[in-house]
Amino acid sequence: MNTTPTPAQVTEREYVLYCDESVGEGAFYSNFYGGVLAGGSQVEAVSRRLAACKATQNLHGEVKWQKVTDNYLSKYIALMDAFFDEMAAGRVRVRIMFRQNARKPTGLTAEQVDQSFYKLYYQFIKHAFGFTFMPAHAGPVRLRAYFDQFPDTGEQVARFKGYIMGLNASKAFQQARLTLSPEDLTEVRSHEHVLLQCLDVVLGAMAFRLNDLHKAIPAGENRRGKRTVAKEKLYEQIRSRICQLHPNFNIGITTGGGLEGAWSKSYRHWAFVPSDHDYDKSLTKGQK
Predict the structure, then answer these.
(1) Based on CB atoms within 10 Å of each CB, which residue in 37, 56, 85, 136 is the most buried?
(2) Domain span holding position 119
(3) Displacement of CA 43 from its chain's centroid (Å)
(4) pLDDT tens, 32-57?
């Protein structure tokens, strides 16, 4: 399927980026980050369509991966289909980043370890959407970034926002003529933003499957719970929609399509590999 930006997208003067994170430490994969990017001319209409789908399905509260149950499965599938329809039409782009535990970073200082949550977030925003390969624009392009509320407050968040503001000086942002202003870095409540809610579901589904949580059996039971089965079915539907965009999709590796695909493709995974790391085979699925 062709996901090359349409002429309307090429002439955008603003992009809106919603970001979320999930599963700091998983059994096999950790540090999950997700983002959904929409052009400023598209974001309100996309949000209205998704909100209308929620209303049709009687999903009046906040949609989250953790809320998936057997009773709500068909409703969540309908919303995810609507979300992926927007991707297939080229109106939104979704990126998921994660790190395989077996690739253990080395040589980190105590400060780097302490700041790893935000440093990885920085790398995700800088590289995951392939801004370097953004089509040429006639003038500067504003980027607004909305983050689901951070786990920290105060100094660490302020430092992180300082990192993000530094992207203005990066080659990627300068080539793309992207501009970030301090007032455009905002923490938001996800229940007020349907795109962030849909992202939460996709991000949760990937962390669920990569960490083999679909196999979980409650203590004292001999079979999986209904909620686990429902979540696996929802993951499979999401995967089927990804495969329509990427026929050879492999959940655990960086999505193919070359560097240029980081911008042009509607959906991509990025398996982040630290530049300095050791490989510990004992942390892979086949060894546990």
Answers:
(1) 37
(2) 12-272
(3) 17
(4) 999 999 999 999 999 999 999 999 99
